[in-house]
Every structure is written in C-alpha cells, then in structure tokens.
C-alpha cells in the first residue's frame, strides 16, 4: 500500500524542467516519480533538491539501469547507491524493468527484450531475489514495450511476468501503454495480456504516449513518452479501474512524459484526467452496490 489518499492517486515524473516549480510553488499533485540513477550522488545539489521536495510529496524511485535480464552479474556499486537513495528518501515504491541493457559491463541506451525461456526466467528471478534482499523491501517489475521477439522464446510475455511475480514475491508495475504498443508490434490481444495479470500484485500503473514510425518494411509503434496518453490507452485504463477497483485502492498511477517535455500544466492536466476516471469509477461502484 502506498498510503496515498483516494483523491491523490495520480502523479507525474519529476523532470529537470519542472524541479523549480515543485521546490517553490508546490503544485497540487499526488506524488512524483524520479529516475533513481539521476539522484545517486549523496551530496549533490540534485539529491538535496530531492530531499526538499520529498518533504512535501511522496516519491517513487523508478530505475532504468539495473539490467536485471542481462547475463552480467548485478552491479554491486549500482545496487549500493540505490539502497542509499532508498534509505534516504523512503519512497512509496522502487521499480525497474523486465529487460536488459548491458553486456560485459558495457551499457546500451535501451531497455532490450529478453528471450522468454525457462533459463531466462530462473536467471531473472535470481536477480530480483537478490535486489529485494539487499533493499529489504519489495521491488516492482515493469512490463516492457518491445519491437522484436526471439524465435526460441517458449513462454508468452504475460506468463513470464506472472511467473516472475509468483516466484519472487515482487510487485508489478503495470504499464498500459507498453501493452498497447507491444500488442500492435507483436500482434497479440491486449485483453489476453491483462487477463493473465493478478490485480492484487499490481502496485503501480504507468500511462504514457507513443509515436508511430513508418519504414519501408512497415509500421511500428514506439514507446517514446513524448506525447499525451492516447485514447485507446485511456480506454484500457478505464477498463482496468472499473474491473479491479477494490484491488486498486492505494495503487498510484503515473503520467509518464520524458521527451519533448511540455509545460507542467499539460502534465497536470493529464493527471487530472486519470484522477477523474478513478473518481467516476468510484462513484459508479457506490451507485451500483
């Protein structure tokens, strides 16, 4: 449970263009998400600003650098810095991705897909277990967006993700935009994916925008986090909230926007849409019971 009040369930990313707004103006928003790695240095100005902001807003730490799916061993320094940050800020959640991004200690600027095999599953679960042991708390694992798949995968992504949760006790960060993007790129049904997710294991939800790319070989959808949430993703969100409202209590929702970042009022407007959906579904639930 996040401890958020029902009317403060939606947050936005704390990104550099808006830090001064949250330091000085304290806009009305339920919580803020950070990219953990941006605040690893304990005595940096960024870390001090984060401490100041955390006095007024709940914070969620979202990582992009643990490379949990890589064959590399866990980076002990990275994990130690994450633990120091978590102990300092006491966030409402700590998360990373069902992906990999390193080979022999060399990192790529991408969150790359795993082959969904029993071997990869055992390896990924071992990494998650170790992270949770070091942090002393539950890690949330986010479902990825992807643009290719491995021919030798033997497990559908949704079953792989569910198995990770069941074996490790981790929570899930359910990114509805990622499901929608990947459903087009890989030609699966969003509902098949969502039906496989135990709503009780979902501890955070992400909503974002995507970009359509045209190539000679055809069309692909890319999870760019550079646009407003699309109407089909709003529909998936409304469907999820309506179908799992009792399990949703205390589960925060994030409006994720990382490129072509607009004025803060635009982000707050997107957050208001999500909060309104929660309010409408809560009202309908009371009316029909």
UniProtKB/TrEMBL annotation:
InterPro entries: MbnB/TglH/ChrH (IPR007801), Xyl_isomerase-like_sf (IPR036237). Pfam families: MbnB_TglH_ChrH. It comes from the Bacteria. Gene3D superfamilies: Divalent-metal-dependent TIM barrel enzymes. HAMAP family: UPF0276 (MF_00697). Belongs to the UPF0276 family. PANTHER family: UPF0276 PROTEIN HI_1600 (PTHR42194:SF1). This is UPF0276 protein C9I99_23965. The lineage of its organism: Bacteria, Pseudomonadati, Pseudomonadota, Gammaproteobacteria, Vibrionales.
């Amino acid at each position: 449970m996040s401890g958020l009040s029902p009317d403060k369930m939606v947050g936005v990313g704390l990104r550099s263009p808006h830090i001064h707004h949250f330091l000085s103006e304290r806009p009305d928003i339920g919580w803020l998400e950070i990219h953990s790695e941006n605040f690893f240095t304990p005595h940096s100005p960024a870390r001090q600003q984060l401490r100041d902001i955390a006095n007024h807003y709940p914070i969620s730490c979202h990582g992009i650098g643990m490379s949990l799916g890589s064959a590399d061993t866990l980076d002990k320094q990275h994990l130690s810095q994450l633990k120091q940050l978590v102990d300092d800020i006491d966030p409402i959640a700590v998360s990373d991705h069902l992906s990999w991004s390193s080979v022999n200690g060399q990192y790529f600027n991408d969150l790359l897909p795993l082959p969904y095999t029993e071997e990869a599953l055992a390896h990924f679960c071992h990494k998650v277990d170790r992270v949770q042991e070091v942090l002393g708390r539950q890690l949330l694992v986010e479902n990825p967006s992807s643009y290719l798949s491995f021919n030798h995968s033997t497990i559908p992504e949704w079953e792989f993700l569910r198995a990770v949760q069941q074996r490790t006790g981790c929570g899930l960060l359910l990114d509805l935009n990622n499901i929608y993007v990947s459903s087009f790129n890989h030609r699966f049904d969003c509902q098949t994916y969502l039906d496989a997710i135990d709503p009780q294991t979902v501890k955070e939800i992400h909503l974002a925008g995507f970009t359509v790319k045209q190539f000679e070989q055809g069309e692909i959808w890319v999870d760019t986090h550079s646009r407003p949430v699309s109407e089909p993703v709003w529909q998936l969100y409304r469907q999820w909230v309506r179908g799992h409202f009792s399990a949703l209590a205390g589960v925060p929702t994030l409006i994720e926007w990382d490129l072509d970042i607009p004025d803060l009022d635009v982000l707050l407007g997107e957050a208001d849409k999500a909060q309104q959906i929660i309010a409408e579904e809560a009202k309908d639930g009371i009316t029909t019971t």
